[in-house]
Amino acid sequence: MSEHGTMREHGVDHGRGGASWAGAAQATLHCLTGCAIGEVLGMVVGTAFDWPNAAVVVLSIVLAFVFGYALTMRGVLRAGVSLQSAFRIALAADTVSIAVMEVVDNTVVASIPGAMDAGLSTLLFWGSLALSLALAFVVATPVNRWLIARGRGHAVVHAMH
């Protein structure tokens, strides 16, 4: 299979100078998976220990980046890349996407009355978190499409597949 055939499978078509929405959505979903794991874990841990809201948000953001990068690195390391190179690739591939998702996610949760103080067993806690992650996906997808079309973002990991 040619390089362009492989790239087209991942939503990049250099011949047309763009990226498909499906490819961007796939990249965003991949990034959102790690982001959501970290975000949910941070919210659950911080809420369970009754930490102040600011500490919960900071923990959630840090864990979102850690898990987002870790998922990308896992795939890149399988291709035989060194740990240091895999980390650099993950930074290049996911930083903008995770940052956009975290801004949207935390803004949405903070704007829902009572969501930051809701207990783990409440619909408000889980509903606001689900809504915030869904909206983060919607906002990050066009950003990822733009990045992929320019050979950036998730496009940098395609050579590893």
Automatic annotation (TrEMBL):
The keyword Transmembrane helix applies. Pfam families: DUF4396 (PF14342). The chain crosses the membrane at residues 51-73, 124-143. Residues 20-152 form the DUF4396 domain. The keyword Membrane applies. Keywords: Membrane, Transmembrane, Transmembrane helix. InterPro entries: DUF4396. This is Uncharacterized protein DUF4396.
